Fold this sequence. Notes:
Shape: elongated
Amino acid sequence: METIVRIIIYGFFLGINGLMFLFLHSHFYFTFFVLMIMAPVISILCAALLKRKLSVEITVLGENCAKQHEDVYFQIRVKNPSFFISLDTKLYIEFENTFLNTKGSKVVSVPVRMLKGYTFEIPVTPSFPGIVKVCVAKVKIKDLMGFWYFGKKVFVAAEMPVVPYRRGTFQYDASAVEQGMLESEESTKRGNDFSDVQEIREYIPGDRLMSIHWKLSAKRDILMVKDRVSMSDKQLVIVPELWSGSLQMLDMVLASAYTIIHTFIEDKTTVRLVYWSAKRYEYDDIRIDYAEDVDRAFIQMFYEQPYSNPNEAAEHMAGVYPEVRSYLHVAPGQDDVIIRIRENG
């Protein structure tokens, strides 16, 4: 509608100029009349050429993953290697949480300068965890005189994993949890034992040969060993339900599972995160020994998809994991998350 009005007004002034030339036979009005005819053609032609040269890039600023409820900044760069410009270039931006399948959109209008383009940042504050994806699907370039838009499909995107927030510290009955733990496989721990390096000291007769720091010993020309602090040789299986019935409840399940895992890791207890993959109809089983592994495990889980059965993950445990006597089940409830040690079978 705006374009039609602009064309009508321009045509009105063009007609007045033509009448002035007919009545006055002035070279000035003739020249002005020709310029008014040529100007829209040149404007549209320049916009068409700009369309061919223009490109868009999206990058994520900051860390490899973000925290829920914290701002994530996506930088969008409109690149223009040509001498043509546009005062109004519309970018059609789509926002999506690919894990939760929630979507939104926004149209941003920016100027495009010659040989530079335009760069700006869009802050996104994720209300839910998952994979936040920002995509520019197309752009529309308006000519300088505002008569025509040239559309161009670009399809560029960037994504940022968003992990849940911690709900304080999980309080649990140690004796009840201990009954459901499995023996860990020692070979999977760093350093091949159930310990973490606390300091490096000189060798004392009786120290294990496995604890010798060979590289440092070679440099110092004296045997040095890694002194370790003891860790648990047990592991706890945690099974969260990725239920799609309520975004708020799924958010609570994820936040609870995230908090529980961090609590046990801080207590030096190995955790196995076992979740149901509705895509492949099987479990994913991720061992978590250290705090830095928690975010990676959740990011991997966010490439799955939630399911409609609120008890889906628990229903297959007995058949797939008969060796697991019990596990910590994190499931949706009516008003809050249900966290309990569940017998397997």
